[in-house]
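Appendix B. Chain record.
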Amino acid sequence: MPKHELAELYLNQRLSLDEIGRRVGASPQTISRLAHEYGISLRKGRRARTIIDRTWLYEQYLIHRRTLNDLAREAGMSATSMNRWAHIHQIPLRGGGGPCHQRNLRAPDEAMAAPAVLRPALQEKGGWQRLHRFAAVAAHATIGSAAVALDLDPGALTSQIKRLEHDLGGQLVIRAQRGHPMALTRLGTKVTDAIELATKCP
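Structure tokens predicted for this chain:
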């Protein structure tokens, strides 16, 4: 989104970050970050009304490894409120010793600790990141809208999903067609369930 369009929607039309995000298929946090980059001052409002997008929080906290305090500052809320959003979205919190799934699944020689369906994707570097991104994509109607929400190139995201489909031996999603949103296959559902299970500490 170019600066003049964001300025028109936010400053002249007085739309909220949530409303702008819904228009362009991005999270309010992404719009806030873009406004900051463009030097557009945000209005001071009731912070308690800020809605945290699950995909954004999942990606930033579990994949990009940012802290809840850092994310809370970006969203303009307290760390306690951000922690509450993590619980609302059922996002597992990292412990003081680091995330259990990183300890158990990150290295190829420890891939056997993962659910069996995920193991083929964890044999090489980057497998766990691809799995997490696939889980985030599953919440969207199209790969394109998921790419916008995740701040990723659609082509790169599509390539990562194809790589997972190759590694896991089957189709994970049925691509969106006219009048029909993207849907998970039976294998895709099994994989997302296994990812959620694997992110929880024993």
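Further analysis of this model is presented in Appendix C.
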